[in-house]
UniProtKB/TrEMBL annotation:
<feature type="active site" description="Charge relay system">
    <location>
        <position position="270"/>
    </location>
</feature>
<dbReference type="InterPro" id="IPR000209">
    <property type="entry name" value="Peptidase_S8/S53_dom"/>
</dbReference>
<dbReference type="InterPro" id="IPR050819">
    <property type="entry name" value="Tripeptidyl-peptidase_I"/>
</dbReference>
<dbReference type="GO" id="GO:0046872">
    <property type="term" value="F:metal ion binding"/>
</dbReference>
<dbReference type="GO" id="GO:0006508">
    <property type="term" value="P:proteolysis"/>
</dbReference>
<protein>
    <recommendedName>
        <fullName>Tripeptidyl-peptidase 1</fullName>
        <ecNumber>3.4.14.9</ecNumber>
    </recommendedName>
</protein>
<keyword id="KW-0378">Hydrolase</keyword>
<keyword id="KW-0325">Glycoprotein</keyword>
<keyword id="KW-0732">Signal</keyword>
<dbReference type="InterPro" id="IPR015366">
    <property type="entry name" value="S53_propep"/>
</dbReference>
<dbReference type="Pfam" id="PF09286">
    <property type="entry name" value="Pro-kuma_activ"/>
</dbReference>
<keyword id="KW-0865">Zymogen</keyword>
<dbReference type="InterPro" id="IPR036852">
    <property type="entry name" value="Peptidase_S8/S53_dom_sf"/>
</dbReference>
<keyword id="KW-1015">Disulfide bond</keyword>
<feature type="active site" description="Charge relay system">
    <location>
        <position position="266"/>
    </location>
</feature>
<dbReference type="GO" id="GO:0004252">
    <property type="term" value="F:serine-type endopeptidase activity"/>
</dbReference>
<dbReference type="Pfam" id="PF00082">
    <property type="entry name" value="Peptidase_S8"/>
</dbReference>
Amino acid sequence: MRIAAFVLSFIWLVNGELLEADQDASVPEDWILVERVGPLEEVELTFALKQQNVNQMEELLKLVSDPDSHQYGKHLSLEEVAALVQPSQLTEKVVQNWLQGHGVKNCHAVVTRDFLQCVMTVQVAEALLPGAKFHRYRRDSQTLLRSTSLYSVHEDVHQHLDFVGGVHRFPPKGKEISKGWEGARLSKLGYHLGVTPSVIRSRYNLTAKDVGTATNNSQAVAQFLEQYYHPADLAEFMSLFAGRFTHMSAVERVVGTQGGGKAGIEASLDVEYIMSSGANISTWVFTNPGRHESQEPFLQWMLLLSNMSAVPWVHTISYGDDEDSLSDAYMNRINNEFMKAGLRGISMLFASGDSGAGCRHLTKERNTFRPSFPASSPYVTTVGGTSFKNPFKLSYEVTDYISGGGFSNVFAMPDYQVGAVQAYLKSVQPLPPQTYFNTTGRAYPDLAALSDNYWVVTNRIPVPWVSGTSASTPVVGGILSLINDQRFLKGLPSLGFINPRLYKLQGKGLFDVSEGCHLSCLDDKVEGKGFCASPSWDPVTGWGTPNYPVFLKALMD
């Protein structure tokens, strides 16, 4: 009877979420099981401790981000954020006693004290989380330690944790961003204009004088999927494409450890286009920080932000996963981390994805659209993609059919966008069937930029036809950095979490994109078509693409 009572006193978790203990966590098909991990091998687990004052944090974020609030722009320091959200003394004591009771001593807390990272042997980890069984998995050259079986956390402890990182989540597979590479290279589109920094600057009305000059400005890209940039590629890119405006040809700071081997197209793209759009602005690269097999690179980046008092003002991230592959508990906690960043005056930009509305096959006869996270987070700015109407000259923009967009199935529509989204739902006909999407969910993207046929230098070779919202996101990030630059020169605070202000502008300073639809499920009900662009906001290109001088003027108070 004592054993039965002990078992009943445990709560089963997967990805930090309460679940029925009736199935194992799934392994993505691109990961191959290699071996059971030996008991003395080490793992590094991340414990997300319950935060205090989360509702107060959300209300405060609304105030500092609303241009009509007297608290607008009054951002907090990291230390002030820590004082607001750090766990209660009881939470810290319970978790620390639990860890120390299992002999776990090698732990490090972040400044905000709401994350603990601990190194321990597999034997200890499996004793700490009964049910966990760690195995090594391989995908291409990457290896990972994960447990796919259900594990348990004692009920006295579970109420003090949001999730445990490094146990279940597998990183998403990096997407192919050179859209149609072979077909495009072999086609007769050899005279296609292609997108370069000069094309971006011409289309969005940036002059040679629109470069950074403020000494306290900075911007960053973050890379998680074993992608690295090469400094020589960046220098070559700037030499080829940035001769008409003042720019920097080197990254100011790399946070983490750059891997060896070939440069990745996505990493090259991110760095080259944030630094040519946000020209002459100090740029950081956050990269896989000495990744251990059990670490989650995205989570590592979030922890870094909670541990650095001085970080860049704009971050652009081309990373996402299907909402339905992640637990609500995990996503809600990541949202809290985005709120913490917004309170500090940091702008977080995420690519909307390259699968249009997406498609999830529920049964043989029923599909739904498939939103992506963090694109669907109410606390980040999500960037969609466009193409030139006429690919042979600087023309107006239409939807890029891959541009990610839609409605969250997890997060409610935030107040700042209700009017715009409801206007779209009422005015656009026909809409996809309502069984395919959640009309009350957070809608995205928020704005867009060109995402089709970019030139990139990677491994010292100029490569054309690179496409995806991985391209549009650093472009928008660089433009927001230029606006921050002008604000700093006038003694104004950073833009921070821009969405409430963006929606109040109702498209002012943006080129409206009102042509084209993006892709979705290939079935007899929607026939591959998702949502379509329309005048004003839409769930394909948001409010549209930047018209820099007008956008700047609208954001300069």
